[in-house]
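#lab-general

N.A. 3:47 PM
ok so I finally got the sequence cleaned up, no stray characters, all 298 residues accounted for. can someone with queue access submit it? mine expired

B.Y. 3:52 PM
send it over

N.A. 3:53 PM
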Amino acid sequence: MPSPGTLTDNGVALNAGDSVSVADISANKLVYTPATDAKGTVSFTFQVQDDGGPANGGVDLDQSPNHFAIAVGINLAPAGTNSTVTALEDTGYASRPADFGFNDVNNPPDNLLAVKITTLPTAGTLVDNGNAVHAGDFINVGDINAGKLVFTAAANANGANYASFTFQVQDDGGTANGGTDIDQSPNMITVNVTAVNDAPAGMNHTATAIEDTGYVFTASDFGFTDPVDAASVSGANVLAAVMISALADGGDAHRQRQYGACRRQHQRRRHQFRQADLYPGRQPEWRELRVAHVPGAG
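B.Y. 4:20 PM
back already:
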């Protein structure tokens, strides 16, 4: 008889030598029940009997007992789930165990042991602890928990359904007695990449202003372009504002104004004297004498 466990017919324990009618077998009354938490292989032997009877020396019973084995506690395959994750442009996405949707039907259920990468991403790269992943590689759940399985899109790339790859989950139940510890149907992870604004560019510019007249700027003076975003799915942005990073010292124009002021100051020295000094007896009056200064004369 099988052990550990019991073999019953219609709820009644069987003993060696008992016969079970085909009617009970057809009615699902012949049942083996394993012992609690039992794992392994149990077996019993049996002999089939026909309905011809033993009359006239006939034989209705198989003369060679056969062997019936039952694998107890065999590991059933786990299952994964398709999922969609979102990464940021120019930023690696670290996979999490939840991304793979692990589910196990065993009682009690087994735990996630690893993830097999069945096919590589259709775009971007996938690395485990900094090393390139290849199709068929198993990624230990410890690495996944530690954030070491990382997907990275190409530089400045973004978009919905940017990339996808397939995987199979593996549990820790093992393969003893013919058990299966890996999902037989690969699942897919789809990666959406959210665009992140890239810096625009301006251009150096020289403008011409009229003396004593204000210069009015236009947006085109600043040479705005957004080349990186223009090449992406999200498209180029438009000019929103101009930040004045630093005020100029005026350059040549400022220096020329300073020189001109000094030159005029030296060329027009004012000398004041009183008319009374020249004409005694008259009411004093102030006069101004402007003397031209000859450059180089001191």
